[in-house]
Specification:
There is one protein chain. The chain is an all-alpha fold. It has a single domain (2-64), classed as Arc Repressor Mutant, subunit A, CATH 1.10.10.10. Helix content is 72%, strand content 0%. The chain has 4 helices and no strands. The longest helix is centred in the middle third of the chain and has 15 residues, at 33-47. It is globular, with a radius of gyration of 11 Å. The chain starts with 6 loop residues before the first helix and ends with a helix.
Length: 65
């Protein structure tokens, strides 16, 4: 499922799985929070999530496999 993501989207997913906030992710990547939100929007569509917390659940279940 995560293999369909771009390298940047995969990086953001790694940060999300570590419970980084959107603001922290933006600061690390030197982009705006709005840019992070856009990446998250695309990730949600590709992974089938509807929210940040839903994405965390999906990522945690992927790690358990």
């Amino acid at each position: 499922m995560l293999e369909n993501l771009t390298p940047k989207e995969q990086l953001i997913c790694k940060m999300v799985s570590k419970y980084y906030s959107r603001k922290t992710i933006a600061e690390i990547l030197h982009v705006s929070v709005r840019t992070v939100d856009t990446h998250l929007y695309h990730i949600y569509a590709k992974v089938g999530c509807v929210s940040y917390l839903d994405l965390i659940r999906v990522l945690n279940s992927e790690c358990e496999k």
